[in-house]
Amino acid sequence: MHKRVILYFVLVIGFVAFNFYLRPVEGNEKVTKSYKSNGAYINDLYYSNELFKSELSYDGKRLYEEIIDTSKNDKLEINMVCNENCSDSFNAAYSAVYLDHPELISFVGLDYCSYQNNRLKCRSMANIGKIRTLLATKRIEREIDIVKKETKNMSDKEKIIFVYNYVASHNYDKLFTAAKSNQSAYSFFTGGSSVCAGFAKASQILLQNVGINSMLALDSQHMWNYVEYDKKWYIFDATYGSSFRDKSSKYYYEGLGDTTTGVIDHYFPELYPKIEETTLKSLFDLK
Questions:
Q1: Together in a domain, 141 and 274
Q2: 274 shares a domain with 149
Q3: Are residues 182 and 102 in the same domain?
Q4: 18-22, 33-37, 144-148: the lowest-pLDDT one
Q5: pLDDT digit string (tens) for 110-140?
Q6: What is the pLDDT of residues 174-208, one digit of tens each?
Q7: DSSP of 33-74, one letter per residue?
Q8: Are residues 114 and 135 in the same domain?
Q9: Which candidate, 133, 136, 206, places its Cα nearest to that of 167?
Q10: Distance, CA of 56 to CA of 54 (rounded, Å)
Q11: Quick check: 280 and 214 in contact, CB under 8 A?
Q12: I need a surface site. Which of 107, 199, 263, 283 has the fewest CB within 10 A?
């Protein structure tokens, strides 16, 4: 009897390990061998062209790279030489990392920044650690693989609606705090709940993996996406759907419709395409 119990637990553990961490996956076709040798590469979840980094100043690019290095290597703080315009450079770099790298799941944020004697010091805000990051990345790869298989034979319209519903089916974390890991896709994929930043980053990763062009957008209070459909760009904000959860609600698909994101000024506006006034909700006839 004792041996049977042990065998049972070994089999359960083996099944969980295989299903969540070891099962072969198709992978993101944009993440090629050549891209992996590129400095933009973080992991296999997402391909980044680092569009927003290209708009940064020299100091902004240094800060951008330092933020990523701090997160990837579990450093406790940023401590670097910076000129008198450091504050402006830092805000732009911070936003660019958020927009360029949704796959950087270990990056929650930075806290308590100070500038003295030409040095910028920022304390890291609760990175999740290298081991948890590795395990979470493996798990997320397999969840993405399930979504890719579900959407394999779908049209672009069907894929957009599927990803919206999939993301909106997760819980909105009403206990919002910037100090928690709900600011990254980590909380969405591994904890089942998040806030707008987590939802938008998860949406960005999923949309790219199923073959839909999209962009992240960020302002001082919110984060969302734009998606390309039939060579035109539209608002995609699955956080809205998550707030209602009920598909029968007339408000559920407002994340593809008339949300406030359409009129909010966001960072790097010059890099975005023209956003259509007609909404996906109307175009797709979603009630």
A1: yes
A2: yes
A3: no
A4: 18-22
A5: 777 788 888 888 877 666 778 888 889 999 9
A6: 444 444 567 888 888 887 778 889 999 999 999 99
A7: HHHHTSTT---TT-----TTGGGS-HHHHHHHHHHHHHHHTT
A8: no
A9: 206
A10: 6
A11: no
A12: 263
Residue 119 lies in a domain: yes
Listed residues 78, 106, 124: the one ending a domain: 124
CB 77 within 8 A of CB 122: yes
Q: Could you identify the residue written with the tokens 């990803």?
A: 163
Overall size of the chain counted in residues: 287
Q: Please tell me whether residues 71 and 157 are part of one structural domain.
A: no
Q: How would DSSP label each residue in 126-193? A: ----HHHHHHHHHHHHHHHHHHHHHHTT--HHHHHHHHHHHHHTSEE-SS--TTSGGGSHHHHHHHSE
d(CA 208, CA 186): 17
Total domain count, the chain: 2
Q: Which two tokens stand for residue 22?
A: 């070891």
**Any idea what the CATH number is for the domain that residue 249 is in?**
3.10.620
Report if residue 27 sits inside a domain: no
Closest CA to 142 of 75, 231, 44: 44
> How far from 45 is each of 164, 207, 208, 243, CA to CA, in Å?
19, 11, 9, 26
166: tokens are 């999939």
pTM of the model: 0.90
| Cβ-contact 280, 226 below 8 angstroms | no
All residues at 6 or more sequence positions from 61 whose CB lies less than 8 Å from its CB, including other chains? 53, 93
- Which DSSP string do the residues of 78-141 spell out, in sequence order? EEEE--TTHHHHHHHHHHHHHHH-TT-TT---EEEEEEETTEEEEEE-----HHHHHHHHHHHH
Q: Which of 226, 240, 222, 241 is nearest to 272 (CA)?
A: 226
Under the phi-then-psi rule, with left for phi > 0, alpha for psi from -120 to 50, and beta for the rest, what region is 77? beta
Whether residue 205 sits in one domain with residue 147: yes
Residues 235 and 206 in one domain: yes
